[in-house]
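Review session, final week

We close the course with one last complete record, chosen because it touches almost every idea we covered. It is ABC transporter substrate-binding protein, a protein from [Kitasatospora] papulosa with 419 residues. Go through it on your own first, then we will talk.
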Amino acid sequence: MKPRVVGAVAAALTLTLALAGCSGKAKSSDDGAADKSGVKTGEGVTDSKITLGALTDMTGVYASLGKSVTQAQQLWAEETNKAGGICGRQIELTVRDHGYDPQKAIGAYTELEPDVLGFTQFIGSPFVSAVESRIDGQDKGIVLPQAWSANLVGSKYVRVIGATYDVETINLIDFLLDEKRIAEGDKIGHVYFEGDYGENALAGSKHAAKEAGLTVVEQKIKPTDNDMTAQVSALKQAGVKAVIVSAGPRQAASLVGVAAATGFAVPVVGNNSAYAPQLLATQAGAALQKDYYVGASTLPIGDAGAGPAKLAEAYTAKYPKDGLDNGVIAGYNAASVFGEALKKACESKDLTREGVDKALLTIKDFGADFGISHDFTDPSAPSTRQTVVMKPDAKTPGGLKVVRPAEVAPAAESFAPAS
């Protein structure tokens, strides 16, 4: 993270940890106390209930993603409870909206942590990074972030579901090379958020460029920058043949829209959080459907496969007024992973944080219904290095169709992030 982001996050962390230290609230411990059935319990677990936390963004830069992720996880909890719960207990999801604000995000973590077993989501790589040492050191509760920075890989407790941004970006550039949209000697542009997300994606584009003989032209932006006119002008003047965007949906829409309006006809590829189907109803909709592509570690929610189709039907029935997007699969998949760990922990009669952590380390080949199998047995690696490449399509539910199934580029397979 750059100094401005680090300063904001660090200040918020200092404040919230100080407040936590001054609180008179007693924190329950994973002392291994067993219930009547012999199952050991700890934070967030009673004889009748398992409480999980969700730290989301429903009012900030990732509002559309946060809403669909959260609602999908609430759907999972409802389905699980109707089926009898897990280990004889009902699942309760406690949600906090941080609006992509550092102080609110870290404050919400500090508030919920003593009372939950773990977190089914935490949106925002910088915020997760800010509390990662605390999670690893004293809290030891599983956190499944909706964030894919390689900086989060290596923790036993913060587990990235999917390819990290650097690997995903390498796979996206490989797609452009395979399609012969770019070639050795070309320049490629990269518009990216300052902080963990954008700079991790930039590391991927630099690696791919070095492997393929490309040159990267950088354009760093802030999450508050919504007009990409200056960036498009700079990239056009530099003569780039393609653009990677590692930012939010608004920035991606502006970039593609401005490029189209100014006659800058080059393909644009974006990371998984650089798209929302709501964009198709904007002025940029036509341009997005022409030559914009998105990478992710799941099939799109509108895919005809059994997994996405079943989830889309259930989600639409539960939330008939809300549209479909890939946040639905991402959220549901994360909650399902946590649920699988809970089931295995129950079999071992250990619903403490330590027990759930051990259970997660036994899970592999999970989530194939959504296009990619995930492996959680190695904390030093993301759960997969594969990426599905998709294209916006207004005629498809969820607004995305697959143009290249799950693959990992040779350059991504061998890539090792700088320590």
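Two points worth writing down before the exam:
The chain is about 40% helix and 15% strand.
The first strand starts at residue 33 and ends at 34.
Good luck, everyone.
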